[in-house]
Every structure is written in structure tokens, then in C-alpha cells.
Design goal:
The chain has 184 residues and is α+β, with helices and mostly antiparallel strands. Among the domains are: 6-88, Distorted Sandwich (Deoxyuridine 5'-Triphosphate Nucleotidohydrolase, Chain A), CATH 2.70.40; 128-164. 16% of the residues lie in helices and 18% in strands. It is elongated and about 85 Å long.
């Protein structure tokens, strides 16, 4: 019995004798649901990439997206295995171990754990005394409703990038860096 809005992993055993295939060591197969299964059961089978040389049995995930439970026959044909010509690689062999019992997650893979970056620079900090005169009004407008920590951070950013802002109405920026002739 598959519960409502749940998923379960089912063990699928390959019948190698019935398939009568010559299987090479590097052969990979993709298991997808059959048309008969889709017509018989309101379930979804997650496509699964397997290498049957590693194990004769593998896990596939069956999902019930509806609010009612579904009972499956024991000998139900869930899916078929098709040979894949080439496989660039597998991201992960299994789903995230910490999510194993969480049935609401589908195919969540954890590639690596998050690490803290020790090369992150310290946040700029300044106070109102360090502020250039032309930016004091901007600082007062920017820190309304902010905490003291946010206030010092904003002041630090304004001090670092003070030369980006115009000092007066005649400060037009870096116009001396490029000269060009205008044909009139």
C-alpha cells in the first residue's frame, strides 16, 4: 500500500535470464515506468539510472501525488530497463542520507557540505566623525530606522566609496581621463 501524497523506494530485481541480453561491464540502464503501469495505477515512477553489474537489485522511487492511498499487486510490472549508449556521469549514487525518511523530498542530492570562507573581508565600519561633509546628509537619510550596527556599516561603505559621489554641483566626475574632438 502506497500512502497518499507519499513516496516509497521499491526494490526492483532484474530478471537477467528473461531479458537474455549480453551485458557488458560498462552498460548502464535507465528504468522508466511502462505504459501498462501508468494506465493501471495513478502513481509516478521516477526514472532511475542503474548499472546491473554492481548489483542485481536496485532501488526505484514510486510517488503517489494523490490524496488517497493506492494498493499495488505484488507481481505488478512497474518499469522497463532500456540500455543507455553513453552516460557522461552520475552526480550522486544515492540521495541525501539525512533526507532518507523525509517522504516529501524527491531526488534531493547533497553534493558537498557548506564550508565557511575564511577569505571574506571584514565589514567596513565607520562613524559620523569619519564621514566627508558632502555625504553627511546622505548618511542621515540612509540610517533612519536602522540599528547601530547597520548605521556603522552604512557609514563605512560611504567612507570607502566617498569619491564616487559628487562633492558639489561643479564636480562632474572624472572628465579629465578621456579627451575627444567634436567635429562641428
Amino acid at each position: 500500500m502506497l500512502p497518499s501524497r507519499g513516496s516509497q523506494k521499491w526494490w526492483l530485481m532484474f530478471m537477467l535470464n528473461a531479458m537474455r541480453l549480453t551485458i557488458k561491464k560498462e552498460d548502464n540502464f535507465i528504468i522508466e515506468s511502462t505504459k501498462g503501469f501508468v494506465q493501471s495505477y495513478p502513481l509516478v515512477v521516477v526514472a532511475t539510472l542503474v548499472n546491473i553489474n554492481r548489483a542485481v537489485t536496485c532501488k526505484i522511487k514510486v510517488l503517489n501525488p494523490f490524496s488517497t492511498g493506492v494498493a499495488m499487486r505484488q507481481d505488478a510490472e512497474i518499469g522497463k530497463a532500456d540500455r543507455i549508449d553513453c552516460c557522461a556521469g552520475v552526480i550522486a549514487n544515492e540521495e541525501n542520507e539525512s533526507e532518507r525518511d523525509n517522504i516529501t523530498t524527491v531526488r534531493r542530492v547533497q553534493l558537498k557540505t557548506a564550508e565557511t570562507d575564511s577569505s571574506v573581508k571584514d565589514l567596513p565600519v565607520a562613524n559620523a566623525k569619519d564621514m566627508p561633509p558632502h555625504l553627511k546628509s546622505l548618511l542621515e537619510e540612509s540610517v533612519v530606522g536602522k540599528t547601530e550596527e547597520q548605521h556603522s556599516f552604512i557609514a563605512g561603505l560611504l567612507v570607502i566609496y566617498a569619491d564616487t559621489f559628487s562633492k558639489d554641483e561643479w564636480d562632474l566626475g572624472l572628465t579629465h581621463l578621456s579627451e575627444h574632438a567634436i567635429n562641428t
